[in-house]
Specification:
Radius of gyration of chain A: 27 Å
CATH superfamily of one domain in chain A: MetI-like
Radius of gyration of chain B: 19 Å
Membrane topology (chain A): Multi-pass membrane protein
Order of helices and strands of chain B: EEEHEEEHHHEHEHEEHHHHH
Bound molecules: adenosine-5'-triphosphate, magnesium ion
Distance between the termini of chain B: 36 Å
Number of helices of chain A: 11
Oligomer: heterodimer
Strand order of the largest sheet of chain B: 6-7-8-3-9-10
Mean pLDDT of chain B: 85
Structural class of chain B: alpha/beta
Mean pLDDT of chain A: 87
Low-confidence stretches of chain B: 263-300
Family (chain A): Belongs to the binding-protein-dependent transport system permease family.
Strand order of the largest sheet of chain A: 1-2
Keywords (chain A): Cell membrane, Membrane, Transmembrane, Transmembrane helix, Transport
Strand content of chain B: 15-25%
Number of strands of chain A: 2
CATH superfamily of chain B: P-loop containing nucleotide triphosphate hydrolases
Shape of chain B: globular
Shape of chain A: globular
CATH topology of one domain in chain A: MetI-like fold
CATH topology of chain B: Rossmann fold
Number of domains of chain B: 1
Order of helices and strands of chain A: HHEEHHHHHHHHH
CATH architecture of chain B: 3-Layer(aba) Sandwich
Largest sheet of chain B: 6 strands, mixed
CATH class of one domain in chain A: Mainly Alpha
Structural class of chain A: mainly alpha
Pfam families (chain A): BPD_transp_1
Helix content of chain B: 40-55%
CATH architecture of one domain in chain A: Orthogonal Bundle
Subcellular location (chain A): Cell membrane
Amino acid sequence: MADAIASERGAETLALDQRFEQIIERIHPQRLVKALLPPLLGICVFLGLWQAAAERIDTSLGQFPGPVQVWQQVEGLAAEHQRARDKEAAFYQRQEDRNAKKRAANPDATVKWRDYTGKPVFLDQVQTSLVTVAAGFVLANLVAIPLGIVCGLSSGVYRAVNPIIQTFKPVSPLAWLPLVTMVVSATYTSTEPLFDKSFLTSAITVALCCLWPTLINTTVGVAGIDRDLVNASRVMSLSPMLHVRKIVLPAAMPMIFTGLRLSLATGWMVLIAAEMLAQNPGLGKFVWDEFQNGSSDSLGRIMVAVLVIGFIGFLLDRLMLALQGRFNWDKQAVLR
Amino acid sequence: MKANYLELSGVGIEFETGGKTPFRALQNVNLKMAEGEFVSLIGHSGCGKSTVLNIIAGLHQATEGGVILEGREVVKPGPDRAVVFQNHSLMPWLTVYDNVALAVDQVFRHSKSRAERREWIEHNLALVNMDHALHKLPSEISGGMKQRVGIARCLAMQPKVLLMDEPFGALDALTRAQLQDSLMQIQADLGNTVVMITHDVDEAVLLSDRIVMMSNGPAATIGDILTVDLPRPRDRLALAEDARFVHLRHQVLEFLYARHGVAAATDTGAKPVSAARVLAVEGCDRTDPVGRSAGDSRAA
Ligand SMILES: Nc1ncnc2c1ncn2[C@@H]1O[C@H](COP(=O)(O)OP(=O)(O)OP(=O)(O)O)[C@@H](O)[C@H]1O
Ligand SMILES: [Mg+2]
């Protein structure tokens, strides 16, 4: 029995080894160079131009940061992160010791546990932003996809909703923000709030802005389903629910995903602006704080944030693309 | 066999065009069909053949007159009047099996068990020789195969009437001949009542019990009905030489060209389309030898 397991393990590792070898074999050095050369070259040229331009721009906060200074700021932020984590660990350690001592003296003593409330570091802000954008995105699409399907299926509903869509679609998040802030603080008055008010404000603002691309694309996708497929469904007398599930959703899936990608990109952009303006925690607040701070490091640190914002936006788009690839029935379709 | 199984009485339809007057596509179409009968609709492009078929299917609502199937008026589409569409209209995201299953699960969800349904789906796909590709997507099979699956999907619904809108129009002559033979065989075995639209005169004569020839639109109606009294089973090779077959074929051609030819079509203002379609009908004629050779290879 044990032998069998052992040999199975052996086979498994062997298979893994082989797979690894295959992968190594597939990576031809020449092909690798060919594939990586253009993007690397592009990045190098960009960095060079950036450095050259930065040296010529002087601001009241010192010289505009070039790539080298920005890299120093990345290291600085990493060190700061480490220090904050150490402090946090120390805080909990002290609390633990104190309470242990109290209990040792008097077993019935009420001990207090407090959460650490240090200043959030860069990574915390990134995390807050990601959670907020995800919440807003999900909230928006829980409304947008069903509503889009109904609009696409019924021209009556579409004509009823269209003027409203067209009016609210171009509204900037900054216009929504004060309204959302006031409404949230007026209506969300639970004594033990599940979410922070600032989190809700940001998420709702994001949702209000990233609703439209999905809504419009879903409507167009559903309305544009091949007449013959709809007729086939009518001949089969599929129930409305089955019709939506078996015909409408798969047929409109490519358009829905186009909408979702646009929506997530919009949401990410809106979020940063909302956080900046509303002083809600997140990357936007980080940027704003650094701007207000006005130290010689500030511009470099803002530049780090800019790059991180861009890179996360890029990753989010890739994530949606990967999801689209999974859900798409048309495996031949080229996704970009 | 009931004589008045399917009845169209005084069917006419007007389409809203956005113009001042609606467009009258059909007027006073009357037709009675017996159970198990095979009727072809033939006529120039745009005369309203698809519209007739869609009215029987319930996809269009007639402006006046109506359709009665087995004593009941047709008011909406349903699986008892299955339609084979010109471009197959299979769901591209469902496999061959699942496409048929969608229809079967809907029609027999109460009357057949899961296992019975499964067997029934496979049986119908075997009927059109598509049981080898059950788990392929429509994009992975040829045009002729897709049309076969479309036919299997309709047969599997056990319709009272099988409606076919140019089912073989998009296929090459060889495949078309094969599918015509399959269809003849299936219809002989199952005794389906069939209404088929076609542009191919030989196809109409070969398959039908009656050929309904439609006049040109607007306000198209049935121009003439030709009874094809050739004995069944019919063999395309033997018929090609048959004097009665040649005569029937000639009668259809005469109706289309001499009585409702290009000149008549010009009056309706549909000149370019009609002219092109006449060529296409002739084209079908010319491809006929290939169709025969297909029969050849099958016989061999
Ligand atoms: N939904 C519609 N709205 C307006 N006009 C229509 C509509 N459907 C069909 N028509 C018109 O009715 C006439 C008949 O159309 P139909 O599709 O029935 O022709 P057809 O005989 O099937 O032609 P083809 O052989 O080319 O398929 C045409 O002139 C067409 O323009
Ligand atoms: Mg047609």
